[in-house]
Design a protein that fits this description.
six-stranded antiparallel beta sheet; binds FE2/S2 (inorganic) cluster; three-stranded antiparallel beta sheet
Length: 104
Amino acid sequence: MSQWLEVGNLDDIPRLGSRVVKTGGEEIAIFRTADDRLFALRNACPHKGGPLSEGLVHGERVACPLHNWNIDLESGEAVAPDKGCTRRYEVKLEQGRVLLGGVG
Ligand code: FES
């Protein structure tokens, strides 16, 4: 069963940036695109664990701040030619409130 955890408001997350939520021993980065869509990924790059939350969002990708791999926000997969995948989480917006799913 999926549980939803309220983690703040849309306005708490900068456009083209992210906000980190710590829950259940996991650090989860919630990203906001230029057109206000949200995506959530484990805050660790599939390459060497770089903090994706500190990367720059462009389109539906985030560039890892360490070695510049691009990670697809929808799937958590590294964009070719790089290979790897980080865990993704469900996230939704309800009346301006951000809800994170599959946690707890
Ligand atoms: S740790 Fe992210 S690209 Fe190397």
